[in-house]
Known about the structure:
The structure holds 2 protein chains of 2 kinds. Chain A has helices at residues 3-36, 45-62, 70-90, 94-110. Chain A is an all-alpha fold. Chain B is mainly α. Chain B has helices spanning 7-35, 40-49, 53-64, 69-80, 86-91, 100-103, 109-118, 124-159, 161-166, 170-179, 186-204, 208-234.
Amino acid sequence: MPNDLWIALIISAVGTLLMRLLPLIWMQRHLARRKSQEAAAEMPTWLSVFGPLMIAAMFGVSLVPSSMTPEAWIATAIGSLSTLTVWWFKRSLGWPVFAGVVAYGFVTLAS
Amino acid sequence: MSLSRTPFLRGIYDALPLLGGYIPVAISFGLISTQSGFDVLETILISIFIYAGASQFLFVAMMSAGTPLWLVIAMTLLINARHVVYAPNIAIYLPQSRWWPWLMHGLTDQIFALSLTSLPRMPENARMGWYTGAALLAWLSWIFGTALGAVAGEELTARWPLLGEVMPFALPALFLVLIAPLFTSRIWIITLGATTILAFLLKLFGYLNAAIPLAAVSGAIIYYLIQRQDEQNAK
């Protein structure tokens, strides 16, 4: 493996890990400090708002199909509706996702 | 599912829908990486250690194009910068353990979304096992898919072209199931709806890397504007 690749790989991997890990340590210290001050161990409000919004943003991004054909858009719409319908009745994780993928697959195969 | 299953197995079970999204994308990454001149071992090592989808594609593209090293690293880290808000959001649900810092390697977009909605609903002593099971399955599936793509990606995509097209729909379906229960009040309906639409439009117009953080920040601003408006109306 060339040296350049090693250097880039190690720095990118360590940097990515630190971006996932350092905020955890910061937050754990923040919570511990609040606990020692006998305050409720709550996270800052902006963070509790930000989390669900990140999921909504990921959902929005993932909705755009890789091939932007009318068939792909129709499959996306029907797949999403199927997912939502099954979720409404089952209130679980696996079955709605399965139903969405199957519906998406049927429309893709049929078109 | 049955509560008699161990938390670790429950985590694996809950993360199963992720495989539909992870494996086809990982196969694509393995294929593109080897086509860009990386060998199978190098490709797998990238997936093991960087483990961040979009940035890995950029990493191999820039490395193979001979881009200066500092720019490759800077761009890879910039794309992954959104991860800084993930751990603080779930920290309140994590019981004390010296293993958490290492387990954060598995905190991808999807594992974060799954954790944020699942961890609050389970007993504290089950959380570490659950997270470990879910994150480990996702990581191993990403490595497995990468290896498969690097070794046999061309044959796989030639033989089952539709599979790679259909399975990735598991990701939007999963995100939809995770945000659906959050539409609980007027303020959240407006904010989550606006964030989804904005992210969708940003991706549609080609701003893939900016779409998630920009849409989430805009959503947060909308949330606070509505909240302030409601407070003024209440006075």
